[in-house]
Amino acid sequence: MERYKIIKEVGDGTFGSVWRAINKESGEVVAIKKMKKKYYSWEECINLREVKSLRRMNHPNIVKLKEVIRENDMLFFVFEYMECNLYQLMKSRGKPFSETEVRNWCFQIFQALSHMHQRGYFHRDLKPENLLVTKELIKIADFGLAREISSEPPYTEYVSTRWYRAPEVLLQASVYNSAVVRTSKFNLNYDLRANIKLTVIDEIITIDTLHLLCEADEIYKICSILGTPNQRTWAEGLQLAASIRFQFPQWLCSWDPQRRPTAVEVLQHPFFQPCFYIPPSLRFRSTNGYAATPPSVGAKGAVDQKNARRYSVGPLSNGRPAVNYSYLSANTPARAAGVQRKLELDHQVNMNSCQAPEGNHKLTKAEAMNQPWSRPPPPAAAAAAVRSNGNYFTKDQGPRAPDIAEKLSQLTVGSNRVPSLASDKFVDMKARTHGNTMKRPLPPAGTRAWHAPADPFRHPYEMPGDRAFLPRKLVS
Ligand SMILES: Nc1ncnc2c1ncn2[C@@H]1O[C@H](COP(=O)(O)OP(=O)(O)OP(=O)(O)O)[C@@H](O)[C@H]1O
């Protein structure tokens, strides 16, 4: 840990406290989560849910775990640093988010959920405190309760903070699936104004957290939105309720988890039609410091109002473009280089190989459009013009942007070889250093560490779309 300079505490959760820190060697700002429990073996550490699940994720909207360090029986996770969590942001704003902002948050969250489900995990603790924000970018964090979809029930009945629990979890079902992430606060409710919204998005919109006292109150609240279940809409729910002698309040509508849309289905909804994805390597780094060290918002709940207010006046809020579009130009050396690497790796992964393709390969427009990370905008959105200072673009955000696919088609894929990535990412620092396979300095005695692979695009970024990749574990 002596490689890091600790700056200040930025969060305090049930399992760990989170600190803003700087890597003394690289100058990179990171978030270090120090676990409250002691860990007496490395085995125990690498088998933690948070580690096992996060090492399988590689998505721009899932917080990146960079290192795992055990030192003197204490366990540290080194994450990429994010400015604040969504709860802090909501509290600091004092006014509702615009529909465009809500759409952008949701689009990113569902992309991440879709990826997570494709990788075989469900999160089980989605809530605003676990959604981290830097400018217009949002990422899912805290995989401490994540579970493999393929794992066998019964699952523990106590998952997720009560306000965000799915009805079946509130009713103490021990069998549930990834639908828990699309229920309760993440339940889809149809609403006349926006066609679709999530209750967590309700919260984003209204800045009004539901303070409910017990499971019954929560169920009542959900009933008021979804209506009372009946034999046709959720027979299983009635059975669960009967088994604990709970009586539903009499309202209308639907409950069954199986009737809830998946993340992929949600992304197909017309509400998200104006959104499309821009790969990280193409993102603009604004002159006001997209990648600069952000101000800390302090410990959980203690928001620095002055600093936090800055978040609300970001590009998403004012609806006007604050950038130029030069980042898309293949003539810009730095950007072009970044794009080359990204395309190269995506191509490599698509070919199911650990080696980069030999020789140059120029992407055709059709190929560029078919890259897993590149979903073309719907025609309406493209025609309506987009804005270009974030990852996600919507038609109602500003003037016309260049045709991204057109630009991509002009980029050339380089031929640099990528080191083999077949080896396990978990590294016994001592063993590998002695074997001359590591260039990192030897950590202090008693330290073991795992480092994330240097290249964040090691795995393919899968865009949603293939239902076959979304295992729906229905267990009776
Ligand atoms: N990568 C990060 N960058 C900045 N802040 C972070 C980061 N990770 C976590 N935090 C802050 O620390 C808080 C607690 O982190 P986290 O949820 O991982 O801890 P926990 O002990 O698992 O919490 P919980 O009580 O929700 O289980 C978050 O709500 C967030 O405000």
UniProtKB/TrEMBL annotation:
* Domain named Protein kinase: residues: 4-272
The terms under GO molecular function for this entry are: ATP binding; protein serine/threonine kinase activity
In its keyword annotation, does this UniProt entry include Nucleus?
A: no
Where ATP binds, per the record, is at: 34
User: InterPro entries from the entry?
Assistant: Kinase-like_dom_sf, MAPK, Prot_kinase_dom, Protein_kinase_ATP_BS, Ser/Thr_kinase_AS
Keywords assigned by UniProt?
Answer: ATP-binding, Kinase, Nucleotide-binding, Serine/threonine-protein kinase, Transferase
Return the PANTHER family for the record. MITOGEN-ACTIVATED PROTEIN KINASE (PTHR24055)
Family membership: Belongs to the protein kinase superfamily.
The protein depicted here goes by the name: Protein kinase domain-containing protein
Q: Which organism is it from?
A: Oryza meridionalis
Classification from the root reads: Eukaryota, Viridiplantae, Streptophyta, Embryophyta, Tracheophyta
